[in-house]
Design brief:
This protein is an alpha/beta fold. 33% of the residues lie in helices and 18% in strands. The protein has one domain. The chain is built from five helices and four strands. The chain has a four-stranded parallel sheet.
Length: 149
C-alpha cells in the first residue's frame, strides 16, 4: 500500500539569521547569533534560495506559503525577494503562492511598498507601543529614524 504524504503548505524562513538593524535588549533571538560564530553576518545564499524554492514548489500541493522573518529579513535587500518571486514563478506548477514578511519596517521605502503590493504580500509590522517605550529599546539609531537628534 502506497503511503500518502501530506503536501508542504508553509515554510518559515529566516534568510538573514538573527541579524537585525535594531538592538532590542528583550529580543528572544539575540542569543542565536552565537550559533553563527564562523560567519559574522549569516545570509541565505542564492544557491540555497533557489534549492529551497525549487524543492518547496515540488513538494507542495495547490497552495504554498513562504513566511519571511528573522532577525530582520529586509536586511537581505529587495533584489533577494525579487529573485525569490522569480523562482516561485519559474518552479511553480500552477500553485497559489503566498508570501508573508514580518519586519520592523525600518528599511521599507516606496520601492519596497510597490514590490510588496504588486505581489500581494502579507506584511506584519513589529511595533512595541508608544514612541517613548519603543525608542527605549530600539538602540542608538531610533532617534535618527524619527528625525530627532
Amino acid at each position: 500500500m502506497k503511503r500518502m504524504r501530506k503536501p508542504l503548505q508553509t515554510l518559515l524562513i529566516k534568510p538573514a539569521g538573527p541579524d537585525c538593524n535594531m538592538a532590542c535588549s528583550y529580543c528572544f533571538y539575540l542569543e542565536k547569533a552565537s550559533l553563527f560564530h564562523d560567519s559574522p553576518s549569516p545570509r541565505m545564499s542564492q544557491y540555497v534560495l533557489e534549492e529551497m524554492v525549487s524543492q518547496a514548489m515540488e513538494q507542495s500541493g495547490s497552495q504554498i506559503n513562504f513566511i519571511w522573518q528573522g532577525g530582520e529579513p529586509t536586511l537581505m535587500g529587495l533584489e533577494f525577494y525579487r529573485k525569490c518571486v522569480e523562482l516561485q514563478q519559474r518552479f511553480g506548477r500552477g500553485q497559489v503562492v503566498g508570501n508573508g514578511l514580518q519586519t520592523n519596517g525600518l528599511l521599507i521605502d516606496d520601492e519596497w511598498i510597490r514590490f510588496l503590493k504588486s505581489y500581494n504580500w502579507l506584511v506584519g509590522l513589529s511595533l512595541d507601543g508608544p514612541q517613548h517605550v519603543h525608542d527605549h529599546y530600539a538602540g542608538p539609531g531610533a532617534a535618527a529614524v524619527h528625525g530627532e537628534r
